[in-house]
Specification:
The protein is mostly helical. The protein contains four helices and no strands.
Amino acid sequence: MKPRNIAIMMFCFFACAAVLVALNIRAKMNGNDLESQWESTIEDLYDSSSTAYIHSMRYGSYARQAAIENDHARKSLFLALAYSEQVHEQMCARAAQLFGGNYTPPYYGADISTTTNENLSRSIAL
């Protein structure tokens, strides 16, 4: 490697290190230490996971209602939406666990039993 390239790499390394140190000092001066930032990130992930869980349960309920009404196309749609929300919940929960959190899904006991058309309208409004 040329000495010029090594010098450029060293400069970039020290510049990045200086930026990281400056950001850390700035965060501490503003009263936002790194630990509280992680805690707020974990809380945001919990909120996102809980919301996805509730939506998943709601879409599952809608799918059951569509099955009762023999509306197989909308049942498939609601099952796909429920699965998508389950994946979203699992990914957020996994991220929270990797950051040191411990996620447990919220209790969701309400089973919405309205017509499939009303459920579809409600889903679009979400």
